[in-house]
Amino acid sequence: MTTEFTAWRKSTRSSPSGDCVEVSPSGDQQLVGVRDTKDRSAGMLVFVGAEWYAFVGGVKAGSFDR
Asked: Are 48 and 34 in contact (CB under 8 A)?
């Protein structure tokens, strides 16, 4: 079974030089793909959706601030 990631988006806070990542949920929202904008053809990391959304929630809550 192949999972499709077609709705790639990157942060509006991305640097003008393009050094950032893009994310795309799978069609059923069960998985999230993450890839480097400098080399999109190099592949991606794939996370279970619940793990990704927990990570994003932690970032927003400041859990990873120094």
From this structure: no
